[in-house]
Design brief:
Elements (H helix, E strand, L loop, with lengths): L1 E2 L2 E2 L3 E3 L7 E4 L10 E4 L2 H9 L6 H18 L3 H12 L6 H14 L7 H36 L7 E5 L16 H9 L3 E6 L6 H13 L3 E4 L4 H6 L5 E4 L3 E3 L4 E4 L2 H10 L4 E4 L5 E2 L5 H4 L8 H4 E5 L5 E5 L12 E4 L6 E4 L2 E3 L3 H7 L7
Helix pairs in contact: 1-2, 2-3, 2-4, 2-5, 3-4, 4-5, 5-6
Length: 367
């Protein structure tokens, strides 16, 4: 995608120093566009934990490069296994992280240590290229859903899409998942408008999705998290499209906290609720999302404080709760498959069910 007309991916190897990996510091958006230069696996782990880099597909790709950086210093078996475990433990819910590390290890374990560094960088690059291709395909399949909505509308009526959190190109290597069909529809000339949930407590919708859409020229409106149901009741939402951090073999969906409530509202108002994902987000080893998917509990400080831009142009963090009030901060919730209209994958759309997933991915079932 482009920023001020310049094409970017969300992660890349520094062309002047192949032992440095570059990412955008997402904690600084939308008020500043800063590039971080990571030169060690420890720096990569810190970036993932602090959410300087986030988004399920992207943290998998960045972690793959993190392992490559670690091997540049010590390509031994012991070091490789230790660093892989450290990187895999940085975030518990998104399955792409574990998937990327396991893929890297499968490639590198049989190799001689002296051959691992070059092979690691090559494999991490392949993970990135495949993510871009998958997300572009997701965009094409999701675009058909938006075209069908437009065909049922009057010429002057716009397509209203609601999304939650950030599942755009800044959450992947490029294109995004839930936002990819929206970008393609906009570029095709369809009249699309996006309701952007603020996504408390970290405000990824207000900060990141709104920034992305605005940079690309897509009409959008930021709303508080609790406004979605109201808009659905009044016919102002044609479709909900969200991303996901993990999908079970039976179609349950783990996504940013608050997604479940949007799915309930959508079901009550007969609004289609679609989830966009690459196949790397499917966890074939998990059947029951509510019982088996670990939900990350993040710092209560994310709830008790908020960061914004002052009139004087300073970025400041202020407390918004009473000093002695405690806070809980579950980062994700699970939406049962029964509330999901369907899944948008790189191989097409399917029902949110084991049967639906197996119809698209028969060879990977059970792996």
């Amino acid at each position: 995608m482009k920023i001020n007309g310049v094409p970017y991916r969300s992660v890349w190897v520094d062309p002047t120093d192949h032992r440095t990996v570059c990412i955008f510091d997402q904690t600084r958006l939308p008020f500043a566009l800063e590039i971080l230069h990571l030169s060690s696996s420890e720096q990569v782990a810190h970036a993932i934990i602090t959410m300087q880099v986030r988004g399920a597909p992207l943290i998998g790709a960045v972690a793959a490069y993190g392992l490559s950086l670690a091997l540049s210093s010590d390509p031994s078996d012991e070091a490789m296994e230790r660093e892989a475990s450290m990187l895999a433990a940085t975030r518990p819910t998104a399955i792409n992280l574990r998937w990327a590390i396991e893929r890297m290890l499968q490639k590198l374990r049989p190799m001689n240590s002296q051959d691992r560094v070059e092979a690691a960088y090559k494999e991490a690059g392949l993970i990135c290229d495949e993510d871009v291709a998958q997300n572009e395909a997701i965009g094409r399949h999701g675009l058909e859903l938006l075209r069908n909505i437009k065909n049922r509308k009057k010429a002057e009526e716009r397509i209203n899409i609601l999304t939650h959190c950030n599942a755009g190109w800044i959450a992947t290597v490029d294109w995004g998942t839930a936002l990819a069909p929206i970008y393609m529809a906009h570029d095709e000339g369809l009249d699309v408008h996006v309701w952007v949930d603020e996504t408390r407590p970290r405000n990824q919708g207000a900060a990141l999705t709104a920034w992305e859409l605005g940079s690309h020229g897509v009409p959008h409106t930021v709303i508080v998290d609790n406004a979605g149901g109201h808009l659905m009741q009044h016919g102002q939402v044609d479709i909900v499209i969200v991303g996901t951090d993990r999908v079970t073999a039976n179609g349950d969906v783990a996504n940013k906290i608050g997604t479940y409530l949007k799915a309930l509202a959508a079901r009550d108002n007969d609004v289609p609720f679609w989830v966009a994902l690459p196949s790397t987000t499917i966890d074939w080893r998990v059947q029951d999302g509510l019982k088996e998917i670990p939900i990350e509990e993040r710092s209560p400080l994310e709830v008790t404080a908020v960061t914004g831009l002052t009139k004087g142009g300073q970025v400041e963090t202020v407390r918004i709760t009473p000093e002695h009030s405690s806070a809980a901060n579950p980062a994700f919730d699970v939406t049962p498959a029964r509330l999901v209209t369907g899944l948008i994958t790189e191989r097409g759309c399917c029902n949110a069910s084991g049967t639906g997933l197996r119809s698209l991915f028969p060879a990977t079932t059970g792996q």
